[in-house]
Amino acid sequence: MVLLSVAFDPSHPLPSMAAVAMLGLQVVHSLPRLKWLRGPWSLAAQALLFPWAGPGAPGLLAASVLLIAGGPIRWVMFAGVVAAAGLLNLSDAYSCANAMGNALAQGLIVFGVTRLSDLRAELHAARGEPAAESVAGERERASRDLDAVLGSSLSAVIGLAAKGRTEEIVVLGREAAARARETPGAAVELPRGDLTPRLALPIHVAAHAGFLIVSVIYLWQMRPPAWVLAGALLAVAGVVGLQLYHSLPRPPGVRPRHAAWTLPVQLALACLPLLSPDRPYPQLAGFAAASVLIVMCGNAAWAAWPMSGAIILGVCATLLLRGVAPVENLYWTFNAAAVAAMLYGLALHTGLVFQVREARLALAEIAVVKERRRISRDVHDLLGSSLSAIVVKGELAVRTPERAERELADIARIARRALADLRAIPRDDDPGLSLDAELASAREILTAAGVTVHVDASRRAPVPSPVDALLATVLREAVTNVLRHSRADHCRIEVACGDGLVRLRVRNDGAPADGAAGAPGERAGGQGITNLAERVAAVGGRLEAAPTGGGYELSVLQPVGLGGDTDGVEAVAGV
């Protein structure tokens, strides 16, 4: 629409071969799928056709110069095309100014619409890049923060274990465990930056200024009475200024402020010149038609196009009633429609780029939130057991000095393992969990805490490593909850496989002292069971956790093939 608005001359409805060739080359320059054909040769061909291709040729050539030439030289060449358009129309001041103004405005608009369309496609194709960059930045930040908060504590535990300072280990272990259980902040703020191309606003301003200057020269040349000239100049300035205001980039779905009165005011000012006592001036109606599309298409699209079309038809009808010659009527009606198409096209593509950039930022924000939750969840699930074990063994070393040396060695070993897990979490590396290792660790830690442990894995069969690691994570958190939330004397751990499913069940006989994390009635801020339920559900399993007759049970039922369907299967997974 924009290219036809620039190239078509209603006073010469049958275009010359030069005009057709000029337009064809511009299509090559503007449409993304044909851009591989463009180059210096096509720009040179347009330059040769320029003097014979009609009144739209300067605007097309000016746009092509900006699209193909590189660096600051393109703006010098652009100015040369604008000047050449004026030199080819020296019959009077208005013709010269009109040719230069059209070349300036049309060239900028065609360039702007083309580049904005290209930029929108580029941004859409690379919409995931900001998310990846933001996740990488979040991982770097998390790595620094975790190392400063928990890494330093674990390193200190290793040092204290070497010195035999058990009481300090217990205090430090409890503090570190509390930090590991903290939930991440809900809000994530990313730098927003400039959401529109840096040239969009200058192009809008320059294009509108070109129309304004040409209109002023046209009115001045008509030499109407002073009061008519003053009123017309005010109307032109008001219409163009309001058009620029309506066209400024805004977030998707946001109308210009006060559009409920700025749009009617612009429409009234645009229609007044049609009623001028000397002769009508219809071009301003195109600005009003463009504003209707810009303002209303987002919220009242059903009415925008009919209303804009009615404005253009109103121009034709008014000129007809005022006795304007048919050829001149056709010229001015098309001129108004062309202005509407060009200005709406420029505003539309600027808005589309805005939307794509907003979407890229939204994806980045979502990715950062998800990554922050993953890191927090992994810290909670993977380190909670190790930190609880450090506290339990530290307390045991305090109570039984004769076992202190062995317990301190275990504390140092557990702290080193936790430190390795901590450093793997921000990178999203596989922590290498094993259900066999966790079963052995559960027996050791719970026994050290004075809990009698019974492990039944007689019906266990080999399972894929991702399932094995998932069950190991569940068991690690289950043991942590027994230590933190119960007064258990006995704990039973069962692992069984059959019918393509594997079940892990952990039961203890001590009702939660303060509500197991994630269970009904838990204290505010707990997230352990919630984390585990999300992990299990994400790969097609089910997890349940609830008090059971003076004790507590957590059980998980997981298909051996990750992502399987457990509909209709009763799932039980317990602590």
TrEMBL record:
TM regions (residue ranges): 199-220, 226-246, 309-325, 331-354
Protein name: Two-component system, NarL family, sensor histidine kinase DesK
Single GO MF descriptor: protein dimerization activity
Cited InterPro entries: HATPase_C_sf, Sensor_HK_TwoCompSys, Sig_transdc_His_kin_sub3_dim/P
CC terms in the record's Gene Ontology section: membrane
Segments forming domain Signal transduction histidine kinase subgroup 3 dimerisation and phosphoacceptor: 371-425
Species this protein is from: Streptosporangium canum
Alphabetized Pfam families for the sequence: HisKA_3
UniProt key word Transmembrane helix: yes
Keyword Amino-acid biosynthesis attributed: no
Superkingdom field: Bacteria
Entry keywords, A to Z: Kinase, Membrane, Transferase, Transmembrane, Transmembrane helix, Two-component regulatory system
